[in-house]
Design a protein that fits this description.
By secondary structure, this protein is mostly beta strands. It is built from nine helices and 46 strands. It is 12% helix and 35% strand.
Length: 722
């Protein structure tokens, strides 16, 4: 396959990359419906690329299917080792499987009632553990103990099925064993087992002091009050501590982390955010990144896991904007005295090698590209295996990095988006990838030789349907220097001599991107539906979005939406140069941050956009949550001009085009106060937006409600833009 790096210099304003397009008659091909395209649709699964599921048993690849699992040899051949029916009554396809013990023929199987270890050679269940009623369960293969939450309390069940209750004061005010800080800073869970499985670190979050947001449940006989704890920017936030439970002694201690004010009036001395918990290999030490509330001072600190005493501060990183720790440190499997740390202190997220005393030994990776994920280690070769966009900003490739000499080696050679799953020792990697023209491929790669064995090549699941034209290109940002990448989706009947209504789909916020070198340039299925109906859809990743480096993302600091709009309007300028784009019929749509961007564009450039649909929009950032909002905007007290500048309340009077606002009635991410306040401002200003709510839904519509949502979005453009 031709590498895109050889033609990257041609990615300029007037050059496009297009998928091959062979026109077909309507009689030969089907047309899509939202039941086909939307993830809540009845036919959605049938139109997804073929897939297979695998797991690792040490360095042996294992396959997993609905009723069985087994071995995969180096040629890709499968050999069954267990059948669910052999386990007896009560086992069916709703289960999970993993292979925790290399060299032992044991598979860990779990359903809603129990987890078992099954020996596929003897065809016997060798161990059973009850798991009914568990929430946030976290099982450890060394001790066979599991941590879980039940009735708001934290429990540990040991290998002998003895249940240990660790807490008694759990409630909606005091939360145990769950993700804290509203899932920011890379936090996805609330329990962390030590390597030997004998100690458990866990979060305790006291949010009793946090203001309740008054959500309402309308499904009761009389609507009932179901408040959410929601800390808004500049207001009082919660207090987090970290407990350490010792399985052997059945005792819990708490780390002596800093204490201070939790009030929004004294953010400089506020309790820090505690994130990215990691254990030393000997389980004697716990490492935490402590970030001040202003999020511009981050410190790596070690604690004694037996006493809870603070040992040392190993690293400090500060910024005049913000520091954002997202990854725990990781010790080298072959050297318990050294660890790698991720930081974007040089402008891009890279790897640094430290010893456990906190001395920097070397920077392992560098350059104008981003380490996107650390997959693990090749122990024999002393390498770190990563995913990164070193090859090109739109591509995600897999690499090995030598810890000895920092040599970077490409493990893949095909254009596209690669996701890897590393074997136990790092000798092999399972590579699931796709490209603009390829729906899905699965390869088994030897990380030492880079030799690949093909396990799956998916056919095009859309081959029987009329498909739109997908294109990708680049323009310059509003600074005149930075490259921005876009995707354009055109009707399958596209005629360059005609003019088409055009919709800009926008997100634009941090930690997200829309355009990459995945299948159909990673187009959202709704774009296909709109193109089929005769629209052009245009998507541009502006400055502020992810995977382009620190300065690219931090360009929006303290003024969210402003730089982003400038870049989006450069996209509008580009559309003006295209004779087939009808600039009198230009629409815009986005959700969440994209909803904020939609209304921002509609009210800042009211003569440009004729129709907009804004979903779950932030209207005023003082009503958004502390962690996210204050990172990018500081507090309303510290940055009143910035908050006033980007608030959409005062812009309600500028609305000219047709605007539909949609929200989940019980949105606990962008709370309904945003939409309702904007509607109130529109009433006072005499402007006329439309409004639709989904009762019982939160920030995103679930299940088949998503089909209804996208039909509503589409119909609004059909009614007012076409």
């Amino acid at each position: 396959m031709t590498k895109i790096k050889s033609i990257i210099p041609l990615l300029v304003l007037t050059v496009l990359f297009s998928l091959p397009y062979l026109p077909m008659t309507a009689q030969e091909k089907k047309l899509f419906t939202l039941e086909d395209l939307n993830y809540g649709g009845t036919n959605f699964r049938n139109l997804q690329p073929e897939n297979k599921w695998f797991s690792w048993w040490g360095d042996q690849l294992m396959y997993l299917e609905a009723e069985e699992g087994g071995l995969v040899d180096q040629k890709g051949n499968q050999q069954s080792v267990f059948l669910l029916k052999d386990l007896g009554e009560g086992w069916h396809s709703a289960y999970s499987a993993e292979y925790p013990y290399p060299q032992q023929p044991l598979v860990l199987l779990e359903n809603s009632r129990q987890r078992v270890l099954y020996n596929w050679e003897t065809k016997q269940i060798t161990w059973t553990q009850n798991c009914e009623g568990e929430n946030n369960s976290d099982w450890n293969k060394q001790s066979k103990a599991v941590a879980y939450v039940k009735d708001s309390q934290l429990f540990v069940r040991d290998a002998d099925n003895n249940e240990h209750q660790l807490t008694t004061d759990g409630s909606r005010n005091v939360v145990y064993g769950s993700a804290v800080h509203r899932n920011e800073f890379g936090i996805e869970k609330g329990t962390f087992w030590s390597p030997d499985g004998q100690k458990l670190a866990f979060y305790r979050m006291d949010q009793s002091m946090v203001t309740d947001y008054p959500q309402v449940d309308i499904d009761t006989r009389s609507a009932s009050y179901e408040p959410d704890k929601y800390p808004m920017a500049g207001e009082t936030t919660h207090c987090v501590t970290i407990g350490i439970y010792d399985l052997a002694s059945n005792r819990t201690i708490y780390l002596k982390t800093p204490t201070g004010s939790i009030s929004g009036d004294s953010v400089a001395t506020a309790v820090p955010y505690l994130t990215n918990i990691a254990w030393s290999p000997d389980a004697k030490t716990v490492y935490i990144f402590e970030l001040n509330r202003d999020q511009n001072d981050c410190r790596l600190v070690s604690y004694d896991s037996k006493t809870g005493e603070r040992i040392a501060e190993l690293y400090q990183e500060t910024s005049d904007k913000y520091v954002e720790p997202l990854h725990p440190i990781e010790f080298l499997p072959w050297d318990a005295d050294k660890f790698i740390m991720q930081s974007q202190r040089d402008g891009y997220n890279h790897l640094y090698l430290y010893n456990k005393a906190g001395k920097l030994l070397k920077q392992l990776t560098s350059g104008p590209w981003v380490v996107q994920e650390v997959l693990g280690f090749n122990t024999k070769q002393k390498q770190v295996i990563i995913a990164a966009n070193k090859y090109h900003p739109l591509h995600r490739w897999l690499y090995s990095i030598s810890v000895t000499d920092s040599k970077v080696k490409e493990l893949v050679s095909a254009d596209g988006i690669h996701h890897g799953q590393l074997s136990g020792s790092g000798l092999y990697i399972l590579d699931k990838w796709n490209s603009p023209t390829i729906p899905r491929v699965i390869d088994l790669i030897n990380t030492s030789s880079s030799k690949a064995t093909r396990l799956l090549t998916s056919s095009d699941p859309w081959k029987d349907y009329e498909q739109p034209i997908f294109e990708c290109g680049s323009i310059k940002a509003a600074d005149g220097v930075t490259d921005l990448y876009y995707r354009m989706v055109k009707p399958f009947t596209f005629d360059s001599n005609k003019k088409y209504p055009t919709v800009i789909y926008v997100y634009g916020g941090p930690h997200a991107h829309n355009v990459e070198a995945g299948w159909h340039w990673s187009s959202r299925s709704w774009e296909t539906y709109m193109a089929q109906k005769g629209y052009i859809v245009f998507i541009l990743d502006n400055r502020g979005s992810e995977n382009r480096g620190r300065d690219f993302e931090q360009a929006t600091f303290r003024q969210l939406g402003q730089i982003e709009m400038q870049d989006q309007m450069k996209g509008v300028d580009y559309l003006r140069t295209l004779p087939y784009v009808d600039m009198n019929r230009l629409g815009v749509h986005g959700w969440s941050f994209g909803g904020f961007m939609t209304i921002s564009l509609m009210t800042t450039y009211p003569d440009v956009f004729k129709v907009g649909v804004a979903g779950g929009p932030v209207i005023d950032w003082k009503w958004y949550e502390v962690m996210y909002g204050e990172r990018y905007m500081d507090t309303p007290q510290a940055n009143p001009e910035g908050y006033a500048k980007i608030s959409l309340i005062d812009k309600a009077k500028n609305l000219k085009g047709k605007l539909q606002i949609i929200t989940g009635y019980n949105d606990n991410t962008v709370v309904p106060q945003h939409c309702l306040s904007f509607l109130k401002a529109c009433i006072e200003a005499g402007t006329q937006p439309d409004f639709f709510v989904y009762p019982g839904e939160s920030h995103n519509m679930r299940g088949h409600a998503s089909v209804h949502l996208h039909e509503r979005i589409t119909q609004y453009f059909e009614d007012y833009l076409k």
